[in-house]
């Protein structure tokens, strides 16, 4: 797939769409072109019925994403107009990740810092290698951090841990991150990719419409009551019961065989 930049890679296989941050010489720091590429990749994965799960990861062994590529800021964020354009690109990228109807996972090695952690937190499941580190260093840089990002972090780890992460601005280990709920699993580095591929494959083998409806309902549960689209959630649940996959699931159960779900 042409992502528009060699710094972002995308591939598909076994029901999995892989979105890969590819700037390892800079610890996969996010450039403007990388932000621009994410919505394009996500739209392709969303439109492909063969893609059942989307996995985000960084190239190399040293980083998931280490934050923004600061070397670009002199050109890309040097005045109000360019700052606005840059921020619109990053917001569109995050919106495409948060709005994914398919299950998303982050496979994390090494640094997961600042904007990298924000990207990881847009995913449904986060699995890390031993030795990965996590931080939001905004307080060391004098940055203001927007409500949406803080709300997402707080929904995941709770207010006390969110405050600790922001107040200290320090790096947290995988053990600490797992305790806080930042990540779901910790694996030895050599086992990470094979585990994630198997785990994503497990999800990919389940009924896509059921997973989509569950994701919608869970997301609604952590959304302010006044903006929840409960009608859409109800419609998604009802669609499951009217689907070919529901018939296939029942028949496979009775036949004692693995179901072959089609997503319709």
Overview of the structural elements:
With 264 residues, the chain is an alpha/beta fold. The chain folds into 2 domains: 8-203, 2-enoyl-CoA Hydratase, Chain A, domain 1; 207-255. 48% of the residues lie in helices and 15% in strands. The strands form 2 sheets. The chain has a 6-stranded mixed β-sheet with strand order 1-2-3-5-7-9, sandwiched between helices. A 3-stranded parallel β-sheet has the order 4-6-8. Helix 1 (32-47) links the parallel strand 2 (16-21) and strand 3. Helix 1 packs parallel to helix 3 (80-98) and helix 10 (208-221) runs antiparallel to helix 11.
Structure described in brief:
By secondary structure, the protein is α/β, with parallel strands linked by helices.
């Amino acid at each position: 797939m042409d992502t528009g930049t060699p710094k972002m890679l995308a591939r598909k296989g076994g029901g999995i769409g892989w979105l890969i941050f590819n700037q390892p010489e800079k610890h996969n720091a996010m450039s403007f072109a990388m932000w621009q590429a994410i919505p394009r990749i996500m739209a392709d994965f969303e439109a492909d019925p063969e893609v059942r799960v989307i996995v985000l990861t960084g190239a190399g062994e040293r980083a998931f994403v280490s934050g923004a590529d600061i070397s670009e800021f002199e050109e890309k964020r040097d005045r109000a107009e360019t700052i606005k354009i840059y921020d619109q690109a990053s917001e569109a990228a995050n919106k495409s990740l948060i709005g994914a109807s398919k299950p998303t996972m982050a496979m994390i090695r090494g640094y997961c810092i600042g904007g990298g952690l924000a990207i990881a937190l847009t995913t449904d499941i986060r699995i890390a290698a031993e030795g990965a580190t996590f931080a939001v260093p905004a307080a060391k840089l004098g940055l203001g951090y927007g409500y949406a990002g803080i709300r997402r972090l707080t929904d995941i780890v709770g207010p006390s841990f969110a405050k600790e992460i922001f107040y200290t601005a320090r790096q947290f280990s995988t053990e600490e991150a797992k305790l806080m709920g930042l990540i779901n699993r910790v694996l030895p580095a050599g086992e990470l990719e094979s585990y994630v591929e198997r785990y994503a494959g497990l999800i990919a083998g389940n009924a896509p419409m059921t997973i989509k409806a569950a994701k919608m309902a869970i997301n609604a549960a952590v959304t302010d009551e006044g903006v929840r689209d409960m009608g859409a959630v109800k419609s998604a649940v009802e669609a499951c019961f009217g689907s070919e996959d529901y018939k296939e699931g029942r028949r496979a159960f009775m036949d004692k065989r693995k179901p072959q779900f089609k997503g319709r």
